[in-house]
Amino acid sequence: MSGPGTTRTGTLPHARPGETPANKATAAADTVTAAADLPWAEELRGRTVVVKFGGNAMVDPALHRTFAQDVVELWHAGLRPVVVHGGGPQISAMLDRLDLEVRFEAGLRVTTPETMDVVRMVLTGQVQRELVGALNAHGPFAVGLSGEDAHTMTAVRRPAWVDGRSVDIGLVGEVVGVETAAVRALLEAGRIPVVSPVARGEDGEVYNVNADLAASALAVALGADRLVVLTDVEGLYADWPRSTEVVARLTAGELDALLPDLASGMLPKMEGCLRAVRGGVRAARVVDGRVPHALLGGVFATDGPGTTVVPDPETPSAPVPASPSEEDDA
Ligand SMILES: Nc1ncnc2c1ncn2[C@@H]1O[C@H](COP(=O)(O)OP(=O)(O)O)[C@@H](O)[C@H]1O
Ligand SMILES: CC(=O)N[C@@H](CCC(=O)OP(=O)(O)O)C(=O)O
């Protein structure tokens, strides 16, 4: 198995597959993989892909391992994956064990100072460690950081909007600033950054950020090519819970119009996708993390699986009116 800093290949720690012939050969020999064989893998070489890891894939050990393999596969195919992880179910389980309240408003956890201690401990101390460990079973790839580290994410306190009313939900943050230097340095060193959705506040607080929105903010700031969100449903259902017909593709404008009708966990997820494509990410896709290798399909497939959000088509620019002198000449 090759990876950054592997002495066996004789490559520099920062070398990436494809950068040197030796590295390329080793990568090819070690990983003749599905991703690397796909024709459009070449098109995505060198591009940054932000992956939000959440839902069932996080709690099923076999899916957790497959996810880690797939992220490493992306790396071997020459992409620059960045993982932002969730951990809502694990936080709720720990709050239950500690006899603390579990409550959500508009898909966001009501976060008291006591809850925040648990959020920080579970996300950065437990969930992230497990993910970093699973990735590093394949080589010295992953480095975990909290959104608090090196000012990676700065947030301000935000309310939830419920039936048009603003509801105080405590130490929940809206990301207002992303400092990408630490993540970029890791990418340049050939590592896979794994980021937990906890942010610093300029007011000295620490904020709980929904992981979908954190992934979206990071994708925009990094100028990522894609945002892929793994969850525990097939994608966005058009008429949930009455029907489970998946919306395959929608433009930012179409999603914007749909957003007020969305509820629970799907609301921040789709809001994150919308912000991502409006912020310059070429496509945001929600895929079913219960399906093994969903991530590879999410990155490489052109149509489906799941729900793909794309930017609005460019409006053709209006014809330039003839200048008065040209009109006079006519
Ligand atoms: N329109 C919808 N389409 C699909 N799922 C929806 C929809 N509205 C609400 N949901 C709920 O959102 C959940 C996904 O959000 P969440 O539980 O926060 O996922 P994750 O843990 O992956 O972030 C689904 O399991 C489903 O119960
Ligand atoms: C403010 C807010 O709701 N934060 C989330 C952070 C974790 C998360 O988003 O995890 P999932 O992606 O697994 O849902 C929470 O406390 O659950």
From TrEMBL:
Pathway(s) the chain acts in: Amino-acid biosynthesis; L-arginine biosynthesis; N(2)-acetyl-L-ornithine from L-glutamate: step 2/4
Superkingdom classification of source: Bacteria
Span of domain Aspartate/glutamate/uridylate kinase: 48-288
Region feature (Disordered): 1-25, 302-330
CDD domains attached to this UniProt entry: AAK_NAGK-C
Residues at which substrate binds: 87-88, 109, 208
MF terms (GO), sorted A to Z: acetylglutamate kinase activity; ATP binding
Designated name of the protein: Acetylglutamate kinase
N-terminal signal peptide: none
